[in-house]
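Q: Convert this sequence to structure tokens.
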Amino acid sequence: MAPVPALIGVLAIQGDFEAHQRALARVGTRGVAVRSERDLDGLAGLILPGGESTTIAKGLDRLRLWGPIESFARSGRPILGTCAGAVLLARVVENHPVRCLGLIDVVATRNAYGTQVDSFAAAAAGELEGMRCVFIRAPRLSQPGPEVEVLAEVDGWPVFVRQGDVLATTFHPEITDDPRVHRRLLALAGV
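A:
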């Protein structure tokens, strides 16, 4: 009998959470939608996807998920936030602040590169050398604290960071064929 793949939750309030589920399938695990505290039970990790951070934050309020996600992180299970998800993981949010989890010691500036029409792709340096990173109304991370490891940069700005078991990207790894970010999450989950 083949082993059952680990389950990784993908917050399914808003954004392209289904693209993360497909990316997880490509790396050999299953992504499941998270819309309630009960959905966090038994998960090996969690992804906070891109989308619109204000809408996602309001959904977290409505579904009463702030505390359960904080508890999930304290349990040592890894979390990955991409784009708007990275905003929600930050210590401080600038440019129309939203409530955040404070799980990564960085300042996130929302929509730092402009509007939707200013979206772009660029190759990363560092751990993701050569990865084509797609930025859509992307945040910019700054002022990383001493426990934050900058894993990749574009034009000198952190675009992939880690603090303990929490990862954040300012781009959308789920819309590329490059599996490195999702594999990094699975490695933290021990999968």
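The longest helix spans residues 17-26.
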